């Protein structure tokens, strides 16, 4: 600003200086003209006086003008900026000291172009041309150079001098300033300004970013606030309707807060519990658990391990609650111990029932003459045995713990000849997820070879694991029994073939199911089957028909004399028989049952020789078990479909009454395992060492029965009357004795591990 004011003052001074010079250049004739004008009107004296006054005024004015001129000349000479005058071509005619410092000590007469920086000379020439043409250019910047050749930046202010007659440019007055420092300062200022602008832009960007962040944070805060309000409402609703109890306790267990769920679980109103001690409602036996629970929970921010304790209901009952605790004493929003409790009473009851069931099932599994197991195979194909019963010890001599620890060692016990088939069946079971039944041999730890029957069901769980549940039964005794039975069958067939009496079995429909050679000869059945290929039918004799019907009605015959009309075959015309005759005979009958106790027919023994002793016939009858049926390749079989089937000769193992069991026992049978004997009357029966494992005797009358050393392992004995019964040495392990009456029963040396005695009378 000061520089600009100075420039204006210098311009005004130059104009005033020019005016003074013009005045000083006025000719003297002007004064004479003024005097002549006055002389016309004044006299000489007055004229002289006037002239003297004018001269004095003129001298005073000239001195004043000279002083002003000197002052302006000094101002021109000693001005800090350069002033110089050039003609129209740019030749310097006058210059002050400042200009001489820029142009050298003798710039007068030199053209201003000599002091212009070389690269600006062409532009300077255009400038001179424009000024000569009368263009009004007041100021501009050029790069000049000192006489030493050093460049500097110069700012020019130009005033054109024109002719008063035609206005032609006669010359120019120049005001020059060295603005190098100012230009540098300006450049620096511009750079600083640019940097400032960049900085301002960066700050604006940061401010905009901060503004966006602030807006986002405010929006996030509003969203969080809305969520917080919703969450608080949700939490309030959850706490209001949740079945879990939430308590906030002081360090001394004083209840600060209690959720409404306490009314649903314990019957108390929440406001009634505020200020009371939490431990007041805990069972005395569970207080040590709770105290230890608190000791481990305090100063631990994480949720504690759950504990189960009994809490007193408002009605006096004890409710099982599972509780967890979190120490929030240091949290200013809570300042307490937060205890979450859940009612697990039903779960505890279920667990208790499950344990009881597992004990019962374990006892039953232990008492059963079989090995129960579970095999699992995971996604990687690894086989494990989660469970195997104690029957494994009896089967192979290996403990369940050993088998679970190393499942693959069981394969070493499979007979070498059966290993490949066993592996193939197991693999097929896992692949097809079906039920498989197969028999194989095993070699026990003691070296004994046993036959075993394996029944396994394979299935897949939701997690993709394949499970195999099965039972392995030792059937070695069955094999021996089958061999003995085969031997017995052969012996009985030989007896039937050799005995001189007719033996046959007649079905309830009247079809002949089995006969020996004497019966075939007596009734001519061989000729009928050979000629007509039809099934032999019972004779039309009224006596024989009555004998069958009486036996089916429960009245079997024993050595009854009858007179029979039989057919004698001489010839067969159109399927008709001829030559009938009458004979005297002795007949005995008995019912024949299958394995399930169903009547399959009537066994007849007919002795047509009246000269033979009746007692001999009876003796032969008793040698044949009337409750047995037989098959032999020498005896013609008759199937059910074609009436040519021979029933199995195995003993009937499923009697339906106590009398049948007693009868079988008397003839030597001891194994009645699994029989259905519910409600049987066995009063005062002598059944020493009888095998009733797993039998159903519930509701039976066994008073005064001698069960000395009997095997009742796993039997259903619910509600059985054992009054005064002898159970000394009996195996009652796993038996269900609930409701059984054991008054005056002898139980010395009886095995009762795992037996269920709940609600047993006089136990």
TrEMBL record:
Protein biosynthesis keyword on record: no
PROSITE patterns named in the record: PAC, PAS
Keyword Ligase listed: no
Catalyzed reactions per annotation: ATP + protein L-histidine = ADP + protein N-phospho-L-histidine
Cited InterPro entries: 5peptide_repeat (IPR001646), PAC (IPR001610), PAS (IPR000014), PAS-assoc_C (IPR000700), PAS-like_dom_sf (IPR035965), PAS_fold (IPR013767), PAS_fold_3 (IPR013655), Sensor_kinase/Photoreceptor (IPR052162)
Any one Gene Ontology BP term: regulation of DNA-templated transcription
Entry EC number(s): 2.7.13.3
Group of enzyme by EC: transferase
Pfam families xrefs: PAS (PF00989), PAS_3 (PF08447), PAS_9 (PF13426), Pentapeptide (PF00805)
Single GO term (MF): protein histidine kinase activity
All residue ranges annotated as the PAC domain in the record: 436-487
Alphabetized UniProt keyword annotations: Coiled coil, Kinase, Phosphoprotein, Transferase
Coiled coil ranges: 186-220
Alphabetized SMART domains for the sequence: PAC, PAS
PAS domain sequence ranges: 68-104, 231-301, 375-433
NCBIfam families named in the record: sensory_box
Protein name: histidine kinase
Organism the protein comes from: Pseudanabaena cinerea FACHB-1277
């Amino acid at each position: 600003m000061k520089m600009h004011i100075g420039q204006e003052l210098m311009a005004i001074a130059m104009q005033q200086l020019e005016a003074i010079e013009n005045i000083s250049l006025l000719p003297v004739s002007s004064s004479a003209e003024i005097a002549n004008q006055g002389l016309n009107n004044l006299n000489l004296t007055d004229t002289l006086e006037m002239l003297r006054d004018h001269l004095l005024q003129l001298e005073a004015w000239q001195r004043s003008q000279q002083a002003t001129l000197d002052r302006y000349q000094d101002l021109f000479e000693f001005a800090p900026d350069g002033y110089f005058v050039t003609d129209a071509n740019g030749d310097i005619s006058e210059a002050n000291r400042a200009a001489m410092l820029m142009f050298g000590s003798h710039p007068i007469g030199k053209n201003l172009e000599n002091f212009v920086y070389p690269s600006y000379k062409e532009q300077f020439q255009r400038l001179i041309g424009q000024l000569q043409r009368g263009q009004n250019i007041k100021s501009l910047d050029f790069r000049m150079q000192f006489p030493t050749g050093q460049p500097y930046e110069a700012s020019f202010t130009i005033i054109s001098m024109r002719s008063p007659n035609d206005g032609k440019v006669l010359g120019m007055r120049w005001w020059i300033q060295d603005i190098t420092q100012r230009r540098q300062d300006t450049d620096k200022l511009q750079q600083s300004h640019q940097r400032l602008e960049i900085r301002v832009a960066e700050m604006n960007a940061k401010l905009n970013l901060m503004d966006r962040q602030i807006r986002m944070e405010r929006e996030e805060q509003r969203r969080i606030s809305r969520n917080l309000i919703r969450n608080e409402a949700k939490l309030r609703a959850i706490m209001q309707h949740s079945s879990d109890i939430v308590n906030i306790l002081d360090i001394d267990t004083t209840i600060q807060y209690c959720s409404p769920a306490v009314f649903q679980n314990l019957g108390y109103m929440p406001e009634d519990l505020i200020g009371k001690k939490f431990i007041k409602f805990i069972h005395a036996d569970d207080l040590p658990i709770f105290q230890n629970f608190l000791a481990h929970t305090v100063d631990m921010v994480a949720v504690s391990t759950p504990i189960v304790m009994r809490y007193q209901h408002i009605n006096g009952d004890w409710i099982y609650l599972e509780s967890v605790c979190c120490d929030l004493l240091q949290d200013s929003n809570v300042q307490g111990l937060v205890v979450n409790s859940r009612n697990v009473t039903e779960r505890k009851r279920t667990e208790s029932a499950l344990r009881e069931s597992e004990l019962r099932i374990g006892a039953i599994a232990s008492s059963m003459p079989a090995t129960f197991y579970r095999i699992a195979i995971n996604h990687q194909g690894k086989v494990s045995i989660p469970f195997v019963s104690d029957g494994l010890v009896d089967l192979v001599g290996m403990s369940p713990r050993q088998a679970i620890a190393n499942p693959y060692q069981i394969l070493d016990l499979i007979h070498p000849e059966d290993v490949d088939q066993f592996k193939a069946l197991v693999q097929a079971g896992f692949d097809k997820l079906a039920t498989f039944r197969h028999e194989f041999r095993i070699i026990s730890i003691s070296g004994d070879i046993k036959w075993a029957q394996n029944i396994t069901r394979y299935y897949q769980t939701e997690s993709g694991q394949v499970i195999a549940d099965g039972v392995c039964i030792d059937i070695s005794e069955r094999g021996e029994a089958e061999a003995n039975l085969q031997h017995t069958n052969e012996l009985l067939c030989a007896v039937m073939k050799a005995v001189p009496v007719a033996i046959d079995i007649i079905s309830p429909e009247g079809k002949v199911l089995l006969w020996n050679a004497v019966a075939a000869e007596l009734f001519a059945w061989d000729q009928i089957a050979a000629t007509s290929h039809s099934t032999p039918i019972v004779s039309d004799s009224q006596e024989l028909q009555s004998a069958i019907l009486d036996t089916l009605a429960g009245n079997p015959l024993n050595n009854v004399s009858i007179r029979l009309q039989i057919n004698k075959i001489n010839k067969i015309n159109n399927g008709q028989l001829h030559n009938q005759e009458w004979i005297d005979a002795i007949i005995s009958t008995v019912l024949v049952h299958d394995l399930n106790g169903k009547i399959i027919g009537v066994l007849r023994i007919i002795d047509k020789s009246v000269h033979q002793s009746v007692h001999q016939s009876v003796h032969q009858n008793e040698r044949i078990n009337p409750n047995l049926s037989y098959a032999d390749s020498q005896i013609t079989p008759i199937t059910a479909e074609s009436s040519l089937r021979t029933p199995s000769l195995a003993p009937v193992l499923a009697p339906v009454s106590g009398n049948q069991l007693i009868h079988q026992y008397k003839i030597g049978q001891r194994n009645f395992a699994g029989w259905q004997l519910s409600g049987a009357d066995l009063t005062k029966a002598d059944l020493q060492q009888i095998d009733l494992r797993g039998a159903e005797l519930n509701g039976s009358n066994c008073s005064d029965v001698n069960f000395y050393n009997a095997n009742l392992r796993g039997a259903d004995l619910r509600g059985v009357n054992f009054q005064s019964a002898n159970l000394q040495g009996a195996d009652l392990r796993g038996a269900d004795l609930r409701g059984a009456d054991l008054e005056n029963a002898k139980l010395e040396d009886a095995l009762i591990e795992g037996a269920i005695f709940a609600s047993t009378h006089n136990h």
